[in-house]
Amino acid sequence: TRIDVIPNAAEPVGETALRSARNDLRARLGIADDEFVFGFVGRLSVEKGLKHLLGALTLGSPASRSWRLLVVGDGPLRPEMEESAAGAGLGGRVIFAGFQSDVSPWFAAMDAFVLPSMTEGTPMALLEAMTHGIPVIASAVGGVPAVVSHRANGVLVPPGDRQALSAALCEIASDGALRRRLSAAGHETVRNQYDVRAWAAAVRSVYERALQSSQVGR
């Protein structure tokens, strides 16, 4: 039996569309131009580790200027996470946007993307953030280290390590040069290795081989 493994892929995004979406959405959410926005996109469930991100944000200020956390997604833990944010004094800083059918403009509003998962495959949200040119901080679990090389095209932290995650948040928020370097490298990684056009060609090749094999076997 032959097994072909084809990783997830992301579609390229135009820079003009990104700038327009960023300005429109941040204005609608009441986010000032000088506020730093951390972003999370995913299902609000235990394995996604949002509670560790909220915990890390309570350990110390991640930026000298004002910051926000934009949470895009829904799930069984949403009420608990909203309560935790409020209880930790983060209620005014955390925006729970709920489920969104089109997440692209929400990525555009972010300054850094955080994936604090406890388990993962090759997460689409990670690839989409990178193709939007957003610097990423992610747990080193599952297929994530195959996409992100620590301090080369993103920052990796041990899963569940709130101290390490807090330190990464602080560094990303305060170091503009690091953000620009990781942004460019992450975008290049997706373009070279996870482009949706290459993915489509790989899928087509698998189906063509399977069709040829079935015809030979007749």
Defining traits:
218 residues; alpha/beta; 6 strands
The number of E-state strands comes to 6
Poorly predicted sequence stretches spanning 5 or more consecutive residues: none
On the 0 to 100 scale, the average pLDDT is: 87
Strand content: 5-15%
- Describe the global form: globular
Number of helices: 9
Structural class: alpha/beta
Q: The biggest beta sheet, please?
A: 6 strands, parallel
Radius of gyration: 19 Å
Distance between the termini: 18 Å
- Neighbour order of strands in the largest sheet: 3-2-1-4-5-6
Helix content: 40-55%
Order of helices and strands: HEHEHEHEHEHEHHH
How would you describe this structure to a colleague?
This protein is of the alpha/beta class. The chain is 47% helix and 13% strand. It contains 9 helices and 6 strands; from the N terminus they run H-E-H-E-H-E-H-E-H-E-H-E-H-H-H. It has helices spanning 15-29, 50-57, 78-87, 104-108, 124-131, 144-147, 162-174, 176-193, 196-216, and strands at residues 36-41, 67-72, 94-98, 112-115, 136-139, 155-157. It has a 6-stranded parallel sheet, sandwiched between helices. Strand 5, helix 6 (144-147) and strand 6 (155-157) form a beta-alpha-beta unit. Helix 2 crosses helix 7. The chain is globular, with a radius of gyration of 19 Å. The relative contact order is 0.17. The model has no long low-confidence stretch (mean pLDDT 87).
